[in-house]
Amino acid sequence: MKHKAPSTVTVQGPAGRLVATVEGEGGIPVLFVHDLAADRTHWAEAQHGMETRTAALDLRGLGESAGGHGPFGIEAAVEDIAAFADAQLPMKFVLVGHGFGGAVAGAFAAYYPERLAGLLYVDAVGDFRATPAAEVAAFLGHFTVEHFSAFREQWLLPLLVNAKDTTRTRVLSAMRTSRREAIAGNLESLFHHDPGEAFASFMGPTHALAATTTPDTLVAQHPELVRSLAPHASHWLMLDAPKWFHDELTRFLGECRHAL
Hints:
Layout: E1 7-13, E2 16-23, E3 30-33, H1 44-47, E4 54-57, H2 74-88, E5 93-98, H3 100-111, E6 116-122, H4 133-141, H5 148-155, H6 165-177, H7 180-190, H8 196-201, E7 206-210, H9 218-221, E8 227-229, H10 237-240, H11 242-259
Parallel strand pairs: 3-4, 3-5, 5-6, 6-7, 7-8
Antiparallel strand pairs: 1-2, 2-4
Helix pairs in contact: 2-3
């Protein structure tokens, strides 16, 4: 199969222009959704060499997508995915979500299960709704205009403990250029999100790739969720273990093809 080189695609979303990188052709399409302080470039290695059409989307207010004034949150991100899929993905597709993007992918699956051929969580966050209100307020306080510039240099460090140097550099660079308003709004929505709704609505192939199984992760809270654990990787396991990620994604796509 001849490989189609990456290209930039722009579609109109609910809050403005949405930008994506599209690569490859044929097969079951794959749509990648990034984490909070991130952009579509975190999926560049994952897109290379796939024998299927893939798209990595910048959510509103992040990367090169417009919509810097919001609204933000999981529901808004679902609207972005729906708009992009309407324009670029006429057939069923596999949705891959990392971290916050995993929550978005699950929410999309709950709303539009008929549009998906598969759902792949990548170190997805769990259910935060039981977090005490005082803890939520204190945490979100770090993301205000007054405090964010000092806090953002520390925020992601615990998640980068096992990261390669190249991963650390890329993640921190993306974080420094990500809009505070988008990060804060997306974060706040996590404390109201029920990830269990996806399990009740989407009955198709579902898998999780995880770096850890700490109590705040989706895999820890849903032991019935089939998962694969990444070897020696940080939260950004697709950057730390690209070959492992490629092999796991390829295997999952085979499962999705058989389920169609």
